[in-house]
Inverse folding.
C-alpha cells in the first residue's frame, strides 16, 4: 500500500521532532537546566543574609557557576552541542549573575550604578546576539567574556561572604568590590568586541 506524500511528510516531521527531543536530553543540557533551578534556591537562602545563610548561599552560587564550566566542556567533548543548549546556557548565566547582583544592591554591598552598567551590557549583548542569530550571523564567544564571567563569580562570592564568616582581618567587601570593577571593565571590552564583530559581518553581508 502506498503512503500519500502528505502523510509521508508528516511522518518524517514527527521522526525529526522526536530525534531533536532525544538529542536535547543529554548531560550538558541537564547541567544547564540545573543551574537555572538553583537560582531560586540561591535567592531564597540569601534573601535574609546571616553568616550561616551567606555561606550556604555562596556554596549554592559556586555550584551553579561550576555547571557553566562543565556543560560547555561536556557538550563540546561529547559532540552534544544543541540549539536548546545554545539558547539556555547564556540565559542561565545571566539569570544567575543578575539575581545575585540585585540582591547585593538590596543589601548595600554593590553600588546601584555598577549593577545597572553590568545589566545594561548584558541586555545589549543579548540583543545583538539575537539579531545576529536571526540574520544567520555566528558570533564567536569572546575569551575576554569568559574572564569577565570568572571575575564576576569571584567578586560575587566575596561580597556574599563579607558579613563575618571569615576572620575580620580579611576585608572581603573591598576585595569583592575591586574584582567586580575588573569584571565591569572586562564586560565592556568583550561587549565592544561583540559589537565590532557583529558590525563587520553585517557590513560584509551587506545587510545594512
Amino acid at each position: 500500500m502506498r503512503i500519500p506524500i502528505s502523510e509521508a511528510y508528516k511522518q518524517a516531521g514527527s521522526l525529526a521532532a522526536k530525534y531533536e527531543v532525544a538529542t536535547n536530553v543529554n548531560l550538558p543540557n541537564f547541567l544547564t537546566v540545573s543551574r537555572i533551578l538553583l537560582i531560586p534556591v540561591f535567592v531564597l537562602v540569601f534573601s535574609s543574609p546571616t553568616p550561616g545563610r551567606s555561606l550556604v548561599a555562596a556554596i549554592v552560587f559556586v555550584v551553579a557557576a561550576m555547571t557553566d564550566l562543565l556543560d560547555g566542556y561536556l557538550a563540546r567533548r561529547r559532540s552534544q552541542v544543541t540549539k536548546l543548549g545554545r539558547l539556555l546556557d547564556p540565559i542561565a548565566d545571566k539569570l544567575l549573575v543578575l539575581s545575585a547582583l540585585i540582591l547585593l544592591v538590596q543589601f548595600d554591598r554593590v553600588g546601584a550604578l555598577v549593577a545597572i552598567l553590568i545589566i545594561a551590557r548584558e541586555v545589549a549583548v543579548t540583543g545583538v546576539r539575537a539579531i545576529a542569530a536571526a540574520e544567520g550571523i555566528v558570533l564567536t564567544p569572546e575569551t575576554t567574556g569568559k574572564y569577565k564571567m570568572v571575575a564576576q563569580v569571584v567578586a560575587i562570592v566575596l561580597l556574599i561572604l563579607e558579613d563575618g564568616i571569615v576572620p575580620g582581618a580579611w576585608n572581603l567587601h573591598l576585595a569583592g568590590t575591586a574584582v567586580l570593577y575588573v569584571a565591569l571593565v572586562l564586560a565592556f571590552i568583550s561587549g565592544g568586541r561583540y559589537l565590532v564583530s557583529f558590525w563587520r559581518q553585517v557590513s560584509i553581508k551587506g545587510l545594512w
